């Protein structure tokens, strides 16, 4: 019985349903809103996953072609080193080396934190309270840097494409993690030889850059890589939140700037504010005139409900501040569920894709090893069979070997 109402079931793939509708010439726009609300988002998600899977397969094929080092000894050695350094799941030694590299990153981070303790800093006379501990930290740091340097240059030497390797994001992080050490050594040497003046601040700044080594953790954790990928995919939702926050901050900071710019009447503000006073005391002075930078910072702190020492003094400024705090709650609260849902969906899909891709790579490697072993056995049997020349078999493809053995088995 024809009712003129079109509904669909939740089971099955949305893309298959779309093909069925096209085959039966059924207009999908005739679908009822209750089902269309689920159908069209599912179509978009399925199509996005399909396109992503096709792109990943194409990327894996290109990567496999690039990483074909050949069957020579040098090629096999490069392949072994490359797999050990880049793909920890390829062997037990690769997993052990990945754990060692991860331990070096953690040790380097811990030594950097310990080296900032006051007891390990030099005083005005250049003396340290615990010189032995400081020397141990320096030895450990030197060893870690040498390890990272050797790891980077070995990977660079065995890389199939050097320029692509250098431009890789993770490889640039690895390079930035070791550059500060050698730069600080160079600056200290130039300072000792009096080629440059006092470079203490520059050296301290360069040493602080050693914290970049912590970003090497991204290489060892698939979850962190999935997190970065999710941030790239959810840029529209995050961009929407940032635009809302930026517009609100600019609006309220402009309003409070003009509200607090004028000095209240009846106050004697001819005396210049003492710059040696604390900022909290200066912020409480009614004669303090706001700059737009201070207004912008006040708007950011108030909108995010953090708070700031600088508070409005006029009635109009307090009204603006109240609306800024209230609107900040709604601006940050309402879009967050949208961002979180999108982020969680992308993150879950990325983890699933990494797990499936890892299983596929393992199965492909296992099938390739089994096929290679089977080809060797077939070749040995064919060589042992009478009437087949060894030189001829060297030029016969593996599929032909199979046909030879099959035909001989049938004849027997």
Average pLDDT works out at 77
Sequence of secondary-structure elements: HHHHHHHHHHHHHHHHH
What is the percentage of strand-forming residues? under 5%
Low-confidence stretches: 388-412
Number of domains: 4
Counting DSSP E segments of at least 2 residues, the number of strands comes to: 0
User: Given the structure, what is the number of helices?
Assistant: 17
**Gross geometry:** flat
Helix content range: over 70%
Structural class category = mainly alpha
Summarize the structure.
With 412 residues, the chain is mainly α. The chain has helices spanning 14-23, 33-66, 73-86, 92-114, 131-158, 162-167, 169-192, 200-208, 217-220, 222-233, 235-260, 279-283, 292-303, 315-333, 336-384, 390-393, 398-411.
Notes on the structure:
- The protein has 412 residues and is an all-alpha fold.
- The chain has four domains: 1-49, no CATH class; 77-220, Voltage-gated potassium channels. Chain C (Four Helix Bundle (Hemerythrin (Met), subunit A), Up-down Bundle); 235-334, Helix Hairpins (Orthogonal Bundle), CATH 1.10.287; 337-411.
- It contains 17 helices and no strands.
- It has helices spanning 14-23, 33-66, 73-86, 92-114, 131-158, 162-167, 169-192, 200-208, 217-220, 222-233, 235-260, 279-283, 292-303, 315-333, 336-384, 390-393, 398-411.
- The model is unreliable at 388-412 (pLDDT under 50).
Q: Which features would summarize this protein structure in a list?
A:
single chain, 412 residues, mainly alpha, Four Helix Bundle (Hemerythrin (Met), subunit A), 17 helices, 71% helix
